Every structure is written in C-alpha cells, then in structure tokens.
C-alpha cells in the first residue's frame, strides 16, 4: 500500500470516508455525527473491498475494487472531538498498535465527479484483514446498504 498515514493537523483537518454504520440513516451516524458535520457527500474508496462483520462492515485494501460511502467533513470546532470519538468507536489506539480493530489511514476517496479528496478511513487492522481475505464474507459491490 502506498498510502502514508500522518498525524492530523488541526489547521488542515481531513474529512472522513465512512462506509458502514456511520453512513446517513445508520445508527452510529445519529449517535456520532448528527449535528457535528459541515457536509456529507457521496464518494467511493478505490482499491478497497468490503466484508460483512458482526453488525458492521470492514473495509480491506484490495486493488481493483471500490467501497461505496460518504465523505464527512466536520463542522467548525468539531474536528478534534469527532476524531477522538471515531477513534474510540473504531477501536483505533494509534498507528501500528496491536490492539487496533481498525487502522485509521489517510487515503484518496473519489467524489461522483472523479475529484480525489484525501480523507481518513478506518480499514481492518492487518490480522483481521488477513482473516477476512481468507474466509470472510465479501459484500458484493462494496456497498453496505446493498447487503440487505
């Protein structure tokens, strides 16, 4: 993977690419994002596949596929609190930590017009990703909403 993770710069916060229970209409959107966003727009995450999990999905790096989701931009003054809340929700403890369920990675997401936007995305941590590739249930088309 060529993506490089960097620490967030409060003067240049990245949007978040969300693809599962944080999408509009899902339970965690209401709990974590409602009233804390400046914008929400459709997007896709290239070079990723989506796997079903225990009530929520996992995105895994895989060239040639894409995951459907939304770009979420934090409302003014909400970025730091939102980043901390999402890190806690996604069980992300920091770069390369062995207890991570997800890793927060800065990757390009694509708007419908093809414009690339660098965004934070939570991908399955390496051991979980390996297990999913070997025996997980992939969600066809990479869209959490389409699994139903």
TrEMBL record:
<protein>
    <submittedName>
        <fullName>Gamma-glutamylcyclotransferase</fullName>
    </submittedName>
</protein>
<dbReference type="InterPro" id="IPR013024">
    <property type="entry name" value="GGCT-like"/>
</dbReference>
<dbReference type="InterPro" id="IPR009288">
    <property type="entry name" value="AIG2-like_dom"/>
</dbReference>
<feature type="domain" description="Gamma-glutamylcyclotransferase AIG2-like">
    <location>
        <begin position="16"/>
        <end position="144"/>
    </location>
</feature>
<dbReference type="Pfam" id="PF06094">
    <property type="entry name" value="GGACT"/>
</dbReference>
<dbReference type="InterPro" id="IPR036568">
    <property type="entry name" value="GGCT-like_sf"/>
</dbReference>
